[in-house]
Design a protein that fits this description.
about 40% helix, globular, binds S-adenosylmethionine
Length: about 270
Amino acid sequence: MNDSESLITDQEFALFQRLIYRLAGISLSDAKRVLLVGRLGRRLKYYGYESYTQYYRLLASGEHPDELQLMVDLLTTNETYFFREPQHFDFLRELLQKEQRSTGNFRIWSGASSSGEEAYSMAMTLAEYRQEGSWEVFGSDISMSILARAQAGLYSLERTSGIPQEQLRKYCLKGVRSQSGKLLIDNSLKRYVKFAQVNLTQPISGVGEFDVIFLRNVMIYFDAETKRKVVHNMLPSLKPDGYFIVGHAESLNGITDRLRLLRPTIYRKSV
Ligand SMILES: C[S@@+](CC[C@H](N)C(=O)[O-])C[C@H]1O[C@@H](n2cnc3c(N)ncnc32)[C@H](O)[C@@H]1O
């Protein structure tokens, strides 16, 4: 055991494992001790605490909802990038080509949007095929700090290499002065992308219905029971015949019979 691991006892680690599971459905394996200490250590320092038990008591008292949210924010993993898993955007293009003549509002949900790269990649794709005002992207996440970044739509230039040149030119602005080295998503695109906090393990209401849902690279943190709950919570918001897309390392095998596999990682709702 190294120094940072020894700062937390087995019992304390188990308390945090249960807490993050209860709040977000995230299963933290024993191998994540170092990660937890690395991420929450600074909160102990902030409060001048000497043990994780003291910090746990503060969280469990129910009197500090902001600190509880911060702890969730710190324990979630937010890695993402523009046009990640490009085959899903190819699929979206195929779909949009077929639907081009339909006049209704085409709505897509980025169900664990992180800092917004997935939602803006969807928006850049939709803007190519749909008439202005006939599409919408909704991005949601459990982490409030990551949602604030998504809403800002400001990214460091080196993180934007996945954006094709044409889309870069059309929908992104190069930051100047205090924002130099950054890229800002243009308002002409941003206005069709809304973000809000949604905890997928809780009943979901008020989000409307979607033609396509992306739920990528979050179910890897969930056990089968949580996956079932999350899919059950989201499915009422997917239109009959709508598409549900998961990450390449994820599968809904044995999770629901309301979705049938169309091709690897792409499911369609059975009516
Ligand atoms: C690795 S990111 C995935 C980002 C993006 N979908 C992608 O594939 O690039 C996982 C996100 O899931 C979010 N998350 C974890 N548990 C959640 C829950 N119970 N409800 C909503 N979002 C959750 C995290 O905050 C994090 O931003």
